[in-house]
Amino acid sequence: MKTLDDLLAEGVSGRRVLVRSDLNVPLGDNGAGETITDDGRIRASLPTLRRLADAGARVVVTAHLGRPKGAPDPRYSLRPVAARLGELLGTGVRLAEDVTGPSARSIVDSLADGGVALLENVRFDPRETSKDDAERGGLAGELAALVGESGAFVSDGFGVVHRKQASVFDVARVLPGYAGQLVLAEIEVLRRLTGDPEQPYVVVLGGSKVSDKLAVIESLLPRVDRLLVGGGMCFTFMAAEGLGVGDSLLEAEMIDTCKRLLAESGDKIMVPADVVMAEEVTADAPTHTVLAAQMWEGWKGLDIGPITAERYGQVIAEARTIFWNGPMGVFELPPFAVGTAQVAQDIVDSNAYSVVGGGDSAAAVRALGLPEDGFSHISTGGGASLEFLEGKELPGIAVLERA
Predict the structure, then answer these.
(1) Residue 2 and residue 10: Cα distance in Å, rounded?
(2) What φ, ψ does residue 226 adopt, rounded to 5°?
(3) In the prediction, which pLDDT does 31 show?
(4) Where are the alpha helices (DSSP H) in 125-165?
């Protein structure tokens, strides 16, 4: 697989380089328009973009935001992303008004050496996510045409490499393809987790559904020493142990699967011993902490309790390798953020090689004000990270390896 270093060694001064970045950041509304609430993915894209710009490349960035339905939607415009990217790069970043149309062509044609332009949300074009190879190929051809015959493609959006999409997969079959710094770093980290990780190896899994994490659970269980379960998914495991879970999130169809996992690997799987409950999922809801076997009917479990956090902390303290994916509770609301904050702090305080598996876990780190450098690596790709750990082929990586 060719890398950014290989491309820079070839020389990029005066050449146009198409970069697929992952700029899918969360947006909020501060009352004066949309604002970025977590710019972690934008920051993660900077090293590759800076190296290309500093080497004199004319950098054309393509990315998506949210899930527009294959048509322009102002709610998902990359306008705030372009502004923030420009601030962080210390240079103006012009945003095209379309994906590959007249505005994109005009802005790319006007780029000077070292300049950076951002195309509008690539998912505004329905061909990006089409299941039809020819349709995706058509968009890939237009993206390639923007950078011309001397152009190149750098894949640096790890959060989308598990998608067979035009700007991720097909364009690498049209242009010479290279892996960017972020993609290379992510692969190196995940190979460490799937190769011969230092023991004890502890995995902390949260999130809402067992079904979303089943494949990675089954893939990791033979390798790990402990699997610590939290989040909404823990209640399906608790139900599998014969416990009542009140009005908590429950995947009834997954109870038998959880029973099997507990029967096969119950010595490795730890399920909460106590939980924080409330009747409503609100910031001012009255809460009660009870043992897992004493949950109340009509109440929802929304965080792990202090006994569980302490037990999990003891396991984490002894670990040498940790992979964490998914919060322990509804961390966005203060009454239910304590478990996630405690587990995350225990990981920071440990001596383990620690990897945060992107998605809500990475958002929790920043929202809770935890030091990002307290973790060995914070992934930018939740879904991509999980699929890599499951052993699946990632199309955006495979296409680079076959080039």
Answers:
(1) 11
(2) -145, 140
(3) 43
(4) 133-147
Based on the number of CB atoms within 10 Å of its own CB, is 45 exposed (0-12), middle (13-18) or buried (19 or more)? buried
Q: Which residues pair with 62 in a beta bridge?
A: 20
Residues 6+ apart with CB under 8 A from 106: 96
Task: Tell me what pLDDT residue 383 has.
Answer: 87
Q: Which amino acid is at 142?
A: E
Q: How far apart are CA 43 and CA 278, in angstroms?
A: 37
Q: How far apart are CA 396 and CA 385, in angstroms?
A: 13
Catalytic amino acids?
41, 209, 359, 383
Using alpha carbons, select from 69, 125, 61 the residue that is nearest to residue 95: 61
Q: How far apart are CA 266 and CA 259, in angstroms?
A: 9
3-state helix, strand, coil in the chain (%, to 5): 45, 15, 40
CA distance 78 to 173: 26
Residue 143: both structure tokens together: 């993206």
Rounded Cα–Cα distance for residues 194 and 187 (Å):
10
Beta bridge partners, 118, equal 61, 95
Rounded to whole angstroms, how far apart are CA atoms 217 and 254? 13
> Under the phi-then-psi rule, with left for phi > 0, alpha for psi from -120 to 50, and beta for the rest, what region is 11?
left
Q: In the chain, which residues have pLDDT < 70?
A: 29-33
Residue with the two structure tokens 């240079």: 91
Residue corresponding to tokens 């490349």: 57
Please say whether the beta carbons of 388 and 351 come within 8 A. Answer: no
- Exposure string (b/e) for 296-319, b if CB count within 10 Å is 16 or more? eeebbbbbbbeebbebbbebbeeb
178: helix, strand or coil: strand
Query: What are phi and psi for residue 216, nearest 5 degrees?
Result: -75, -35
Model confidence pTM above 0.70: yes
DSSP 380: S
Q: What is the pLDDT of residues 19-29, one digit of tens each?
A: 999 999 988 86
What pLDDT does residue 29 have? Answer: 64
